[in-house]
Amino acid sequence: LSIVKSSDVEEVTAAGDVITYSFLVTNTGNVTLTDVVPVEGEFSGTGELGAFSPNPVTLAPGEEQVFTAEYRVTQSDINAGGIDNSATATGTPPGDAELPPPPPSDVSIPAPSDPGLEIVKTADLIDPDNFVAGETVTYVFTMTNTGNVTLTDVAPVEAEFSGTGELGPITPASVESLAPGEQATFTAEYTLTQADIDAGSVTNSATGTGTPPSGDPVEPPPSDVEIPTPADPGLSIVKSSDVEEVTAAGDVITYSFLVTNTGNVTLTDVVPVEGEFSGTGELGAF
């Protein structure tokens, strides 16, 4: 007997790909062989190879038969970088004759690694209509495995950050494993400072990292998010005096001006401004 094993694909790229293996078995001897069928040898696939088709056959000298079997690729096969397979064949000669086993036929199907990672960063505010110091921002990092191999130790990586406060820890710090197409969500909190409000916005950039089964870690393009902190300046003033009435020229009135910043940004050069004044003398300096 001789056997030649082949496959209908030259490479596989994703879990779920189907390989059809063909086994060309030929009776190279001078007697008829019964119960002829391929025999699988070493197989690196982590899934289960389908049954041979057709069932065992009888081959006269010089005759040949093509058998087939299907295999569905697993993610572990892709992570391993390919599938190696070996096959031989068996049959029953007449009488007491012994059939020498044919040399095995090998097929190797590569699975080229194509790691990929994406990150999308967003920001949620508890009260988006109230931009004031002390407001809490929750940053959300959504990471997606866009490649064809499993990534390990996947985590966001903070990049440029214009906030003047301290960003809280990213939770979770990392995920152990992320299969192709899977997503992982991370969060971190930040409390706006008055300097952030005064600056008009807080900008933030993040990238990430993940380790493929082989090769260097992958890093996605950065994702940026900007939180505008619209200025809403405001002042209030309450004027009062230290006396309720005056009775004679020369009486001294002390006016008090309670000025309050009622807006959300810091104000400089704050001073009262006199409006209408019925007094005939001169008001002292503030």
From TrEMBL:
Q: Where is the composition biased (Pro residues)?
A: 214-223
Compositional bias annotation for Polar residues: 201-211
Which residue ranges does the record assign to the DUF7507 domain? 1-98, 115-219, 233-283
Pfam families xref list: DUF7507
One GO biological process this protein is involved in is: carbohydrate metabolic process
Ranges for the region named Disordered are 78-113, 201-232
State the PANTHER family in the record.
CELL SURFACE PROTEIN (PTHR34819:SF3), LARGE CYSTEINE-RICH PERIPLASMIC PROTEIN OMCB (PTHR34819)
Q: What protein is this chain from? A: DUF7507 domain-containing protein
